[in-house]
Amino acid sequence: MTSQRDGLDRFYSVIPAGGIGSRLWPLSRADAPKFLHDLTGSGSTLLRATWDRLAPLSGEQRIMVVTGRAHRAAVEGQLPSLADPNVVLESEPKESSAAIGLAAAILERREPGVIVGSFAADHVINDQNAFRRAVVAAVAAADAGYIATIGITPTEPAIGFGYIRCGEQLDIDGAPTAVRADSFVEKPDLETARHYLDDGNYLWNGGMFISRADVLLAQLGESEPALLAGLSELADAWDTPRRGAVVDRVWPTLKKIAIDYSVAEPAAKAGRLAVIPGDFDWDDVGDFAAIAKLHSAGGPSNLAILGENARVLADSSSGIVVSQTGRLISLIGVSDIVVVDTPDALLVTTSANAQRVKAVVDALKLSGSNDVL
Amino acid sequence: MTSQRDGLDRFYSVIPAGGIGSRLWPLSRADAPKFLHDLTGSGSTLLRATWDRLAPLSGEQRIMVVTGRAHRAAVEGQLPSLADPNVVLESEPKESSAAIGLAAAILERREPGVIVGSFAADHVINDQNAFRRAVVAAVAAADAGYIATIGITPTEPAIGFGYIRCGEQLDIDGAPTAVRADSFVEKPDLETARHYLDDGNYLWNGGMFISRADVLLAQLGESEPALLAGLSELADAWDTPRRGAVVDRVWPTLKKIAIDYSVAEPAAKAGRLAVIPGDFDWDDVGDFAAIAKLHSAGGPSNLAILGENARVLADSSSGIVVSQTGRLISLIGVSDIVVVDTPDALLVTTSANAQRVKAVVDALKLSGSNDVL
Fold it and tell me: Which residues form the MannoseP isomerase/GMP-like beta-helix domain (chains A, B) (predicted)?
């Protein structure tokens, strides 16, 4: 077994930057997905904040970003230190198994024994020190041969997240809090979520996976051999002149499947998944209610306002206003309201209905209203 | 006493077109007041609909419009048959006593014995026949020397209107339903409004006043002699080359007072005010809740949509959307909502808060945000 430092030396960060974030329409769009927005009011986009969180761990030269071709310019504009060989462009979205698996396969060929950690481009974490401690422990677990994940200690019976049921304590050098993952469970209803919270043995699935690249790929190959074969072919050609031709031929054939299903759940069933409890704030800011909550926690006002040129006049109202226009927005006596004002589309809903925004996007797709998607 | 026909022959309609309609901000503005909007979806503006209601009674050549200088072009554009001498322009708003009093004074000089009827430019009445019957009766009462008003039979305990308490039956040729007005009462609270409705002796004050011009002016002179003197000076000069100079000197000095206070209430106290019960629909569409109600009564949908190019996607929502932009407006799960989308200002409130819109306009004035007023 190598030392903790050795593991970190071989650590590479991977940021899959793919999802549009349909529940954040009309702010998030096909051409301006969630990760390109500053949803916290920090002045940084979610992507940039993710980069800044990872750079101290792996170094800027050891961060790979997997994103769509259409977002290349925006991504490189926000991450000027992103090394050219570390930009992996998808010709079409194929979900997280393909994105993370390809990154792992490319990096394993460049640097056998590499440890990869994948971190979504559009999550929010404020406690940087606690995050780093958890990643360092996860790298130690990965170095010990586990597929590691960081499970977030729940602070409320959230129904918008998946959960991990924790099992026995593991004995891993450098990861004293690591436990074995018993199973992954889907987003629960409120009653079940309350039971999970009371039980104390459940953590939120933060979607962060850290493991040796070869271990990750082997696990993927067990459940999805065809996908692994495709990714291997791509990785073999990646750093050669054949890349373009192979991408054109192979990428469209890849199966769309989330890495939770192709890797994490099978690994948990096989007892190979280690969970590092992460005792820090975390949110996937999945809808406008989540953004409103992020902001209301930070200040005394109960009306969150996002937007550089926001001009809001509110009289006894609460909720969130997102302003992308210079228009005056006046709210009178509306509670838990969500108002998203963009140049070509306006959304008015409530926090309680925030999850239903995706249904509107689906309806717009069906009606052919692609101009506002 | 002259015959009913004789009275109508001497009838002249006056339309004071002055109020901005602050409770309908940001739809109604200083440069686009309420009366210039089509709030009913009929295809006619409120001003044009008022004209069309009065033309069969007085004839198009006998309708005078009193409006602000800034609105001359819009008013003349909507009323192409409006005779040039019948356009009375205010250099600044001075409320209804000055507007209606000046019209009466000008017309009395042009045509002694004229009967004037003043009708707000921004009210909604659908039952044209019942309206005409009431006006014909009011003209008969005016011809008999009364100041007449049309009181609307209440259909609900409205708190947004003033009420008229009715007294004894009058015996007027051509106005068999006329009663004496006992008193005018201000907008009541809900409990009082319910009492009025149950009592059966109260009518809504529709703000329509019909009387001989000389009678109206004499009544005005009793309560506001200085105002009458100013109006007389203006009227004496009106159809002469001195008009401009006299307007510049006198108009700014006129007292601002509603005709309800200067004429109607004193006339009621003196027993000179006749009320014709008007058994027709009537609304002053004072706020967005009123507009929503107008529309919901007309169709099965509980979401009223105003705006020629409105593009609304609504999922289990009710209330009203006013769209002045081509933007897509999406509503999800909001009840009794009011959304008014204009190029430079957006309002989001609820029907229950519709009356509070005026407070926002006041706040905007105080903060110097004149660009959106």
Answer: 312-364
